């Protein structure tokens, strides 16, 4: 089967999945306690107004927002907007969500890219060192650090870094986005947790590769240890890491929601948190759908890369064909 045909099949399969995701997102949001119209009015509440006035204004606003329509009508209207390329309009700002996302996407991508670099810088050396020096002090140290990285929540690690590196030492700014110094603490916080998971996966995969017969043969031939590790073992060991890369990217984007809130980073995550607090349904729906599409696209791309990098897949296909 060619990659192009495989890609078409995967896209066809993902269409009903995305439709199910839209229905699930739309349904779950309707179970969130609170009335969006009242939440919006409370932000503009006049101390002299009465509860009756607030209820009347909420009913009017609810009708303007289309929240008085039946569930099926609201869902089909939103689905029609998505198909036409429109993510909707924010309840609070009355601004197209696409415009607001485009303003904030560069900040989120900047943070995610920097966190990815941090993750690779930490995960690759520690994972390789843990496997090469298996059951030695280096392995124990890297495993302990990885365990701590997995166990400590991102928001707590962020607060610790702020206290130590910003408050006590004054090395980096605490909040906001500006120079590269503003990026260090958020990227370090977000990348460390993902590095711990990736390091453990790479270590386990390398140990499995080291036990293969062709690795024993390479050692018997007297090849240098560096050649055995980096030329023969690492490529095969990276296959499970690559296949899990979709979860890693998802962790970067999903973790950015918390990290952007902790560090007041003006990205998509902070925008969505504000929307959740204000019951801004269209913004939450757009973000959840964007994350679902991102996950699907990344996993399809990773499947294609996996088929290209692992010759065993091609051999099996040729045999079945």
TrEMBL record:
InterPro entries: BPD_transp_1_N, MetI-like, MetI-like_sf, Opp2B. The chain crosses the membrane at residues 7-32, 111-133, 145-171, 183-202, 237-263, 283-306. The keyword Acetylation does not apply. It is found in: Cell membrane. It is a multi-pass membrane protein. The complex is composed of two ATP-binding proteins (NikD and NikE), two transmembrane proteins (NikB and NikC) and a solute-binding protein (NikA). This is Nickel import system permease protein NikB. It comes from Paenibacillus baimaensis.
């Amino acid at each position: 089967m060619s990659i192009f045909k495989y890609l078409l099949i995967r896209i066809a399969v993902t269409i009903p999945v995305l439709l199910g995701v839209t229905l699930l997102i739309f349904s779950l949001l309707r179970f969130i306690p609170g009335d969006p119209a009242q939440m919006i009015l409370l932000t503009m509440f006049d101390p002299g107004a009465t509860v009756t006035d607030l209820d009347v204004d909420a009913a009017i606003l609810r009708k303007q927002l289309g929240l008085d329509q039946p569930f099926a009508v609201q869902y089909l209207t939103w689905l029609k907007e998505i198909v036409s390329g429109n993510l909707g309009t924010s309840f609070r700002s009355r601004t197209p969500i696409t415009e607001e996302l485009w303003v904030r996407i560069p900040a989120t991508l900047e943070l995610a890219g920097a966190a990815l670099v941090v993750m690779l810088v930490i995960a690759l050396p520690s994972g390789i060192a843990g496997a090469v020096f298996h059951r030695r002090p280096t392995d124990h140290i890297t495993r302990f650090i990885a365990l701590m990285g997995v166990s400590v929540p991102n928001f707590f690690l962020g607060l610790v870094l702020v206290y130590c590196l910003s408050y006590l030492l004054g090395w980096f700014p605490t909040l906001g986005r500006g120079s590269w110094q503003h990026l260090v603490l958020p990227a370090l916080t977000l990348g460390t947790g993902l590095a711990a998971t990736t390091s453990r996966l790479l270590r386990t995969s390398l140990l499995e590769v080291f036990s293969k017969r062709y690795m024993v043969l390479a050692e018997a031939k007297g090849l240098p240890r560096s050649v055995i590790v980096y030329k023969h073992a690492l490529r095969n060991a990276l296959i499970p890491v690559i296949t899990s890369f979709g979860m890693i990217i998802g962790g970067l984007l999903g973790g950015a929601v918390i990290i952007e809130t902790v560090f007041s980073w003006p990205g998509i995550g902070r925008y969505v948190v504000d929307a959740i607090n204000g019951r801004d349904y269209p913004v939450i729906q757009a973000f959840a759908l964007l994350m679902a599409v991102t996950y699907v696209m990344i996993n399809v791309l990773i499947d294609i890369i996996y088929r290209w990098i692992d010759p065993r897949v091609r051999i099996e296909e040729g045999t079945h064909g």
